[in-house]
Each structure stands twice: as C-alpha cells, then as structure tokens.
Amino acid sequence: MNLSERSFPAFTPVAEHGLLVEFGERIDRAIHDRVMHLDRALAAAPFGGFLESVPAYAGLMIRFDPLQCDHAAAERAARQLLARPAATTAAPRTHEVQVCYDPDLAPDLAAVAQAAGMTPDQVAAAHLAGEYEVFMYGFAPGYAYLAGVPQPIRMPRKPAAIRGIPAGSVLIAGPQCLVSTVTMPTGWWIIGRAATRILTGCQDRPFLFDVGDRVRFRRIARADFDTQVRA
Amino acid sequence: MSGAELLVRFAGPHASVQDGGRPGMMRYGVPGSGPLDRLAFAAANLALGNPPGAPGIEVSLGGLVLECLSGSLGLAVAGGGFITDHAGRKGGSWQVATLRAGERLAIRPGHWGSWCYLAFAGSLECGEWLGSASTHALSGLGGGRIATGQRLRIRDAQPRPGRAIPCPVIARPRTTLRVTMGPQQRFFAPRTVADFLAGPWRMTDAWDRMGVRLAGPAIAPEGALDIPSEPILRGSVQVAGDGVATVLLADHQTTGGYPKIATVLDCDLDAFVQLRPRAGLTFQPVGPRQAVRIARSASVAARAYLTALAASVA
Questions:
Q1: Secondary structure of A126-151 in HEC code, one letter for each residue
Q2: Start-to-end CA span in chain B (Å)
Q3: Cα–Cα distance, B117 to B106 (Å, whole number)
Q4: Which range of residues forms the domain containing residue B216?
C-alpha cells in the first residue's frame, strides 16, 4: 500500500454502472472545488447514459446506464469536462439554520466546553462564528456534512456511539458539523438542537441545501425554539 | 369503484411497501431503495397487467398473513420458493389468485429464497416520499413498514383467474457473484485480496434491507483508516475495521468511510438476495468491460422473460 504514488484525478470502475473519480484523499477545500467543478459540468452537459453524480469530500461517483455506455465512455466524458475551465457559477447560496443551545437540548455542550477550556457560551459563540460549506450528503437522507468548525472546538469522535439521538440535533466532530434528520446513534458531540429542518417537507425543495451551499448558524432562545418546533 | 380492505394478521420483520424505487437522489443521502429482488417484483406486477413498478409489498423470511375484510382482490405472489396458504389451499410463490372477503392468505418461507413479493390487481393506498412509495428502512419514509394489526386498502380492486407465473432460472439464488475489485482495494494487502477471492463465504443471520453481513475469512484492511467518506453503490462489499464484510443492499447508506474491497455487479444482486442465511457463496472478479458485457446479456434475458410474461397477460 503506497498511497503517495496515486495520481489524481484517479478513475476507478465500480461494478457495471459506476465510475469513481477521485481528486485527493483529504478533506480540503481545493480538492472539493474540483469535485464540484466536475459535478456541475456533468449536470450542465451530461453524456449519453449518464444517470447521476454523487459528490463527496474528495471524489465523485458517476452512475451510468451500462446498456447505453460504459466506463471508458464515462471516463472520456469526465476528462473532457475537466479539461474545460470551470463554468462561472452564481455565488453559492447561504442558508441560515436556527439553533438553541439550552443544556437539555445540548447534552455534550458542557463536555466540549471542558475539553476546549471554555464556557458553554463560548463554545456556542465559536460554533456560531464558523463559516460552513456543504461538502456532501451521506449516511442517511438529508445528512449534510458541513465543513468549517473552528479549530478551538474541534473534537475527536467519541469512542462509542450513543443511541437514540433525536432528529434536529446539531453535531460536531473534527472540522465537521451536521444537523441530524432522523433518530440515530451518533459518536459525534451534541451541542444544540436546530429549529430549521433540513428535510423541508416541501415538494419543490425537499432538501434545504445543495452541495456547495454555505451555511450560517443563528442562536435562538428557547421560547422561539419551542414555538417553531410546534409550528 | 370497488375497493378491498385487508387486515395484516401477522407481519414478520422488514415487510414494507416498495415500488420501482427512488433513483437519482443519492446526492442528498437518499439511496435508490425499491425491491431487493427487482425481477421478482416486476414479475408479480406484470402478471396482473400492472406497470412493473406499481406499489406492492415486500415480504421477508418472517412471512406475512393477510385477511380480506371486504372486496375481491386479485393478487400475484412472486419471488423465492415461499409457501402460501390461501383459504386452506396450499400453494407457493409464482401464482395469481383472488382473495375474497373472509379469506386468509399466509406467506411463509419454503424450500428456497429470502424475499417474496405481493402485487395487487388494483391500487394499494399508501404514502409517497420524493415521488416514490418505496419504504426507506432507516427512516420509515415512503409507503411504510407493514406491521401486524394494520389495515391495507386497495382501490379499484379486481378479481383475477388463478394461474401460475413461470419462475425463470434467472430468479433462482446465485452463489457465484461477479465483482469488480475496489474501489478501495488499495487498503488491503495482496494476501488479503487473495483470501477474499478464495473464501469460502457464507450468508449470516445479520441481514436487513441495508445489507447482509457475511461470514468468512478475516479480511481486515491495513493502516490507519482515515479516508474521507466516499460515495457507495448498492452491491459494495464494505469491510469494517474488524475485517467483517458486508454486502450493501437497496437501503444502503450513500457514503461511508470504510473501504470497499469489491463491488458486486448490480445485475447479480436480485438473485444474490434470495440466498438463505448460511448459504455458501464465492466472488469472481471481472474487469469493467466484462462487467458491462455481463450486464447487457443479463438485461436481455430479464427483458425477454418480463416481455413474454406481460404478453401472456395482455
């Protein structure tokens, strides 16, 4: 195993209907920019047989119909799209997610504060100060992985997952943050509860974010949280 | 319009409403879902003259018992070698019958197969999520899980004459799974890859719609596993840090940080899921060009069967 020998972009056929295109092996904005360049280019100019593309941190899965094309055709199309300059896209949209940091909604806030040598309010302030970008969705419907947790409150994952964490929990681990959408076990740190729903329930726009969008968190008081959640 | 109402007298675990699936939304964390055995599901629908992706019920090894409370409802049972008991008459998968008020239909595992499908001559009333009635197991979104005590309503229910549905060879369980290697094969030592291909592998009791865990040689990946999460496809053979392999199925997570040593060809998955716990299986590596050739010929065979079935009903 010699990872340093890999050159990027790397194209790997996956079964009869997939091509994984990797641009690196780290969580890194420049690498992710290349992922998004190809993702947008495929959306704008899909090749014959293209079914969908799935962007992640450092790579993109292209799914295609093997009755209409093959891996070689998908790779040729991707290489051609990558050779073109990135299309100038509209500035990414910024979404606001409202969070309540009250202790009963944020069971790990005190532990994160202790680890960071801060007060719980300072942890919340640090979290609110972060500028987040949607790097990918994964794991479960609407689980948007946001990169951008400020350095002072970056925490390693817990050694074991805690079960039954309610939907809407605001979780952090390392540079990543996410707002859960279903009740789920998690080994991440629960530092608040969002009133804003990522699975919007709205037919035109069932998911609040697109990959590449920016996110800011805004603190709300418990009374506002309760009102919104009941709404 | 005539309707029918069914009472679920008993539902085993993992019984759920499925339709043609919810493809194209993996970028939002949503897997394709849909029936685990897509061929058998399409056969059940086509045998009634339905579109192949009309909402129906997926039944697991846990079985299902329905009682017809009202109406006369034609239905088709396809997939696996399940045993049916319809108002005291013994039968099996791969048949069309009509369930009348007061009658019961029990579906139980038989000699082979792990998943069985029930399609209705009429429209199953069920919820949808993102344009599909397929139930996503983790969230329960979609048409929903089927639970004991629940009532099911079918609009425009029509009786159908009893008949057999031909069970094709391609619907039988498949023990040799064609795979492309990787996409994270590099995390495994050459000897580990050889162990993976040598097997022997067995299905285990740890199965659901997200995946099935396999028993076999320990194939632990090497080195620190700190790869950022990568997109996953249905059929991925994911290996956790402890060396245990899992084949991911219709309700798989869409990304994951565990390395995938190989990926089962999609066209082999319908027959793979019909293997029973403890059944043996092996992996056979193929190159990408060969994978596409295999998929194309499998598609020809499946289409020929389904087209003939649809024509026999029309």
A1: HHHHCCEEEEEECCCCCCEEEECCCH
A2: 22
A3: 13
A4: 171-299
Q: Which residues contact A187 (CB under 8 A, 6 or more apart)?
A: A157, A158, A159, A160, A161, A162, A173
DSSP β-ladder status, B104-112 and B280-285: unpaired
| Interchain pair B24, A51: CB under 8 A | yes
Q: CA-to-CA distance for B253 and B261, rounded, in angstroms?
A: 17
Q: What is the CA radius of gyration of chain B?
A: 20
Statement to judge: residues B9 and B115 lie in one domain: yes
The runs of H, that is alpha helices, within B50-205 are 190-198
Please compute Rg for chain A using Cα positions: 20
Region at B302 (left for phi over 0; alpha for psi -120 to 50; beta for the rest): alpha
Q: Does pTM top 0.90 for this prediction?
A: yes
Q: How big is the A-B interface in CB pairs under 8 Å?
A: 143
Q: What is the ipTM of this complex?
A: 0.95
CATH class of segment(s) A3-83: alpha beta
A contact residues 14-43, partner B, Cβ 8 Å cutoff: 14-18, 20, 22, 25-27
Q: Is B50 found in the same domain as B29?
A: yes
Cα separation, B213 vs B205, whole angstroms: 8
pLDDT tens, position by position, B60-119: 999 999 999 999 999 999 999 999 999 999 999 999 999 999 999 999 999 999 999 999
Q: Is A20's CB within 8 Å of B130's CB?
A: no
A57 lies within 8 A of chain B by CB: yes
Nearby residues of A46 by Cβ (< 8 Å), 6 or more positions away: none
CATH number of A94-230: 2.40.100.10, 3.40.710.10, 2.130.10.10, 3.40.190.10? 2.40.100.10
